[in-house]
Amino acid sequence: MTNKSAVAEKLGSYLEKYQTCRAHTWVLCEPLEQDDYNLQAIAETSPIKWHLAHTTWFFETFILAKLEDNFKPFHPAFHHLFNSYYNGVGKPFIRCNRHLLSRPTVDTVYSYREYVDEKIKNLLKHNSKLSDHQREWLLFRLALGIHHEQQHQELILTDLKYNFFQNPLLPRYQTKIPKINHNITNPPLRFIEFPGGKTTIGYEDKGFSFDNEKPHHEISLPSFSFANRLVLNHEYLEFIEDKGYQKPGLWLSDGWESICRSGINKPLYWFQKNHEWYEYTLYGSMPLSLESPVCHISYYEADAYARWAGHRLPTEQEWEFVAKRYSHLVDGSPHPPYHPLPQINNYEINHLFNHGWQWTLSAYLPYPKFKPFIDEVGEYNGKFMCNQMVLRGGSCLTPHDHIRPTYRNFFYPKDRWQMTGIRLAS
Amino acid sequence: MTNKSAVAEKLGSYLEKYQTCRAHTWVLCEPLEQDDYNLQAIAETSPIKWHLAHTTWFFETFILAKLEDNFKPFHPAFHHLFNSYYNGVGKPFIRCNRHLLSRPTVDTVYSYREYVDEKIKNLLKHNSKLSDHQREWLLFRLALGIHHEQQHQELILTDLKYNFFQNPLLPRYQTKIPKINHNITNPPLRFIEFPGGKTTIGYEDKGFSFDNEKPHHEISLPSFSFANRLVLNHEYLEFIEDKGYQKPGLWLSDGWESICRSGINKPLYWFQKNHEWYEYTLYGSMPLSLESPVCHISYYEADAYARWAGHRLPTEQEWEFVAKRYSHLVDGSPHPPYHPLPQINNYEINHLFNHGWQWTLSAYLPYPKFKPFIDEVGEYNGKFMCNQMVLRGGSCLTPHDHIRPTYRNFFYPKDRWQMTGIRLAS
Amino acid sequence: MTNKSAVAEKLGSYLEKYQTCRAHTWVLCEPLEQDDYNLQAIAETSPIKWHLAHTTWFFETFILAKLEDNFKPFHPAFHHLFNSYYNGVGKPFIRCNRHLLSRPTVDTVYSYREYVDEKIKNLLKHNSKLSDHQREWLLFRLALGIHHEQQHQELILTDLKYNFFQNPLLPRYQTKIPKINHNITNPPLRFIEFPGGKTTIGYEDKGFSFDNEKPHHEISLPSFSFANRLVLNHEYLEFIEDKGYQKPGLWLSDGWESICRSGINKPLYWFQKNHEWYEYTLYGSMPLSLESPVCHISYYEADAYARWAGHRLPTEQEWEFVAKRYSHLVDGSPHPPYHPLPQINNYEINHLFNHGWQWTLSAYLPYPKFKPFIDEVGEYNGKFMCNQMVLRGGSCLTPHDHIRPTYRNFFYPKDRWQMTGIRLAS
Amino acid sequence: MTNKSAVAEKLGSYLEKYQTCRAHTWVLCEPLEQDDYNLQAIAETSPIKWHLAHTTWFFETFILAKLEDNFKPFHPAFHHLFNSYYNGVGKPFIRCNRHLLSRPTVDTVYSYREYVDEKIKNLLKHNSKLSDHQREWLLFRLALGIHHEQQHQELILTDLKYNFFQNPLLPRYQTKIPKINHNITNPPLRFIEFPGGKTTIGYEDKGFSFDNEKPHHEISLPSFSFANRLVLNHEYLEFIEDKGYQKPGLWLSDGWESICRSGINKPLYWFQKNHEWYEYTLYGSMPLSLESPVCHISYYEADAYARWAGHRLPTEQEWEFVAKRYSHLVDGSPHPPYHPLPQINNYEINHLFNHGWQWTLSAYLPYPKFKPFIDEVGEYNGKFMCNQMVLRGGSCLTPHDHIRPTYRNFFYPKDRWQMTGIRLAS
């Protein structure tokens, strides 16, 4: 009979999680032509090939290199090429030049993935050599690596979309266009009142969370009201038609300067043809779906819209307060669409998860007594706690088992290439 | 016997306040050559002449134009030239081009000041024509205009310093250099513990405050500790000598990118000559005073120093919590020095007010249920609530009757031309 | 009776030339307010104060410092501050920061001028201490310094015009506006044929010339035709109205990119008000004078206009060939207007000198066997022989005794702040 | 018996020329991985895939679209995507974004090539339908298209080299490294005297030439001397070791500014490892070959080197004068190396053709009475006649039957990605 510790058992069962995650990345790449793997229009939108290699490098560097005897990397230069921003383990390759890495080829990168997958499998199968402390450590790093890869799964889609959009051919990632139910009408915008009071914020469960979701702490939350759904495309169109983009009084000072300089006057992927509105999506160009939540807008646009509408954005604490009470609403449909489509919304509060990232009024800052992950992975989240805003809720491109009520995403106020939309509050 | 309302009486006594403030601006300009009035090295550092005109424009636009019958501006073009950022009342002149306004001349701008001062005097003297409501309104706008001019009094000095520094002659604003007591030693760095708990933040008194200090609201403050004094130059030198500027692990990601791009490796006005450290001050170049609080550093530098020292910056709530309990420490000396000099620090907590602005860990955001000032002056504070960090405490250049425990200043994380230093917390 | 050498005598008479030139600079500054002395909108347009000091520095550095025993500069830092681009004698102060030099003050700079003038006077009066070789050398450097100051006299006006133009008040340098004769009509555009053949180019006389005008050399000139006058404003208007600025086929590739990027669609100082054309001049804003030569256009614009008109620009050799045969046309009127006004043009070829600089088809390159001036002043012309185009003829702002048929001016193709116009050829 | 005109016969034989040229492009791409086809580090270095499509578009647009009845393009969007700079036929796709065109795929582009090749073949085979005038026209356009493709054959190599160099793996285009004869020593630098005199410049033969080589015209050429060979790497090393890059007096003003701003201090592909010099080549990284001609330097560097060496660069007229007298030296070896290697140089004048492009002192300007090609292809050369310098002689990457004594290449003074070297003159 066995003496195996609980952590050893858990570790054994983790192999499947690992393989499922890795396989999903592969599935996401199936629709691609080989030519599509190396596009990068701006520093932020990395090539798919780079995502494939970087997520693999993460497991190699933060697990294999630490636990393997006589560790030998797949290729000595990959440590430099596929390091994103971990200065603690070496000098990363210039971010905006990732598209210049024609070598290693796509084939070699897939071999790299197999090589590391095989090594991880062996490590998990033969974990009896490890101490319980090592197993705990390994369990955490595996979970981190998997959540990390899930983040890149979303980026693979958002980056590809942005890069494809630069091509006048407007390529389709998905050629089979989903049927859109044009009879769906969303419920009218309504605000739910919350009395506020003493409450707690942050992650307190046993499972995995990022360091930035902790520690769990008490706050005093003033009363507030929270919109029953996201702002829809037809509502955002009204803002445009009311010349919202031409009225400085609606905008933050930096936002006004930003749209003046860039000439922005509509969401990122919208365009007009013969006086009709269209939107570029992963299914190619489509007529604008008026009943879908607006997305691909900056914080500045979300904030200006809210002011125009006579409301404001919620704080991240307000959002989390609501989400924790409505978290059973996380949709479990296995195949998410690649674009927010009109859906029946019969809940009291709709669109909480996996419809569109929701800009909050909160700057991305450490929670009181925040501690970064220890060692090299301490660079994961903490060093970005400046100049960015918190987003909550995930989009339809976020893996469903990746999101949770305490999850804190963050982007710069000007960023628009993520699927970012508007929840109103008051 | 008189029936004069209380507000009418208050209004009468306000004339002296107004004149004192306006006269102080004039005193600040006394040491200048006429050539010095129009310098502008970067968009942020406006010419003195522009400050003189803009503060006058503020009274003319936001008071005279509203209350005078048959209002006629001093010059029709000034409304465009001396508007800083009030889009609601017209299109401001391009900020970075202010130094190109050789006309109106300095003489004309002084005439403009006298013209408006005379009109304001008349308005106050003959306020009996006004309704009580108008008097309330006038009282508020006058207070706002005076506080506004005080902010520009500080800017006159910080902008001039920055602009002078571009000249290899390193001109002196003050030619009489103060005696420095080299025997003063600051107390060792010590942290005072505060238990935290439920407390209130924000302005609740009857006097003047800016909109961003309100509303007064309750928060739940975790326990924290707070340094007994600011970080000193000799302490900051240790950070430099320990190669703090070369260690990415100490820096926020944006901060590291910022110092790499700009080559920053010391506070703004420091320089070395024959292996000795010097500092450019409003008294000209001086040997670095080791026992003075470090100043003219960015948020990035303050944050990196705190991490290097094993601590962190305080939140604005922590700072205010302490300051409200130690506000009797506001120094009342009539003639502030133009540079932080070593002082005897026998208080439990030192350097709270008027030594150096203290970067906090808090992004500049609206308080819960924040309401901007009404009408045109609503643009004063609210539209800057993005991308900036809160600073507290004032510097030796801040007028002493301008600062208070609830006062929220804000600058971009990269800004260094204000007198900004470091308070540590844990 | 005297044994004085010819060069000594010549030297004696040079004092008057020197003083006349220096006094003229002073006259040019008479209309200025003190506030006007330090404007600099772009690197190219230096402050007047800087021009006053730099021309003085030129005499101090290249004459006094070489000939005076125990030479002591007026101020040790001026060597750095007022060096324009002579790397051979030290590091020049950053060009685009000249407007940040509030010190030395205007008064000090005028004292500097007097100080150097006095020294030069003494040197010339007591030149008997010098050898004949030194006298020759001194004569050349004085001539160079005077011609150098004349170039800056023109720049004082063109730079001031550009800097004033940034001010919405559109200040007037000259308040007395000249009478414009609206009855003057220019002769129709006509082309004079020249058969070409063997000819010589470059300066061969005894007087002063710049190094770039030498050596005198033989060329083989193909036949060509040359326009009888400059292109006029009403002709250039036709180009605009024919959408010349919207037709890429008319433009050099770099020119097209340049106007697309900058949005240029008319000459520099033109603007429209109530559908009427106006032009900013040193007399302030004036209705566009249709019979005046067009000026303040780039090489790109001149070239595009010529193509649109079915012609081309002349080469500098063609221009010089014509000018040498028509050099008696140099106008000798003592008080030039500050703007090209309609004039009676009865010559076979008009507008050759002192109406507008004429862009040529020739890149600014060394003549065969070109030798730069010796020693430090070798940097005067030669190092700019790349990326610039030759202009000929001078403008109404060029001192009349400064221009000559062999004179080669040079600017970048994009430059427009000089008074630059169009001579057509075929 | 046949009546076929001479031009019809010539046309028939042109098919082979066409096919040979097109096949050579294909051969150049053989060593590539599919990942390599879409690299673009800077606007100037287009992706290989784009070159393949653009050269095809050239034949399609400028021949097929004009001569085919019911012409239908291969794909309607290609007209936009693969237009380089012909504004006359439509709006070109943004140059610096060419690397974002993952679609059409490489496979589709090869199909495009086959499609157009087939059409051209048919056109040539069935040219009996054409008038003699049309045949003349076709003959010219074919020749132009072939010479155009040859230019892109060179660009394919130079662009790939530049793009590969951004990858730290330093990929090899050619894996079989040629044997280098280390015993070869070049003859010492010697100058051949030419008396000059009346001569003619430009193309006058019957064959194909570009418009910019015409018309053939007479000039008067001063005497000059001309170096017997190109400057070698070991000679350029001396310039570096003598601190040539740190001495402003050696540099043109724009050149000095350019190297200061960019930090350039050696030829483009040179680097040091363990104190040894290496050079990146199409064979990968190799130890610097000291006896090879220096290449990949800017005009500024060539000019500064010449000044340092006490000489100057030749004018394009001098170069052509010599080349016409030594044109039998055009090397006919069928397989050029992909990098200039040491060779036996027994000629009186060496390295004239196909070793390295030679910067001349001449700005790229029209010859007297220059006429651009008629119709749309008039944009080919003329619109670039500004801001660029003429280069002569071709490099080892230039197809041997593409270069000739009158050939005028042109690049901006700062450009270094072409194989550009130094011929000295005096």
UniProtKB/TrEMBL annotation, chains A, B, C, D:
Iron among keywords: yes
A Gene Ontology biological process term: ergothioneine biosynthetic process
Domain of life of the native organism: Bacteria
Span of domain Sulfatase-modifying factor enzyme-like: 191-323
Gene3D superfamilies hit by this protein: paralog of FGE (formylglycine-generating enzyme)
Organism: Spartinivicinus marinus
InterPro entries xrefs: CTDL_fold, DinB-like, DinB/YfiT-like, EgtB, Sulfatase_Mod_Factor_Kinase, SUMF_dom, SUMF_sf
Pathway: Amino-acid biosynthesis; ergothioneine biosynthesis
Pfam families referenced in this protein's UniProt entry, alphabetically: DinB_2, FGE-sulfatase
Name of this chain's protein: Ergothioneine biosynthesis protein EgtB
Record-annotated DinB-like domain positions: 19-156
Alphabetical keyword list: Iron, Oxidoreductase
